[in-house]
Design goal:
mainly alpha, two-stranded antiparallel ribbon, elongated
Length: 142
Amino acid sequence: MPKEDLTIFNMDRPEHVQALITYIRSLQGRGPHAVTIHRVKPKRSAQQNAWLHGVAFPRIAKRLTELWGDQFDMLKAKEWVKSKLLRTPIVNSHGELVGEYIRGTHELDTMECSRFMEQIMTDIAQELEMIIPAPGEYDNGE
């Protein structure tokens, strides 16, 4: 399969819209082509990732170890949180639930990650009877 080119067009800029139209017209008479257009969403930010891996998951790991007696490291805590908050149903073409998968945090865009972080600070914190400080409200030395 040939290497795919990825070009991002900002559809709010008339010159980008015109460039896209010109490109599509240039394909005329050159055989079949597959064109995919999708909205580009910004992935989770470095700050969000730093809070998850530097604050939330390590504190959750410590609390799970206290509560359950088993040794939880940051990665096990992350997987536990994902299993609680990032389960996604798999539905077949008949609308029947046929399974589920757990999304990775790398799949989250910035808005989804913000919701995920909020759920950690509320739902997970409540379940574990702990406080998980919001970004900017924690001491790195804790």
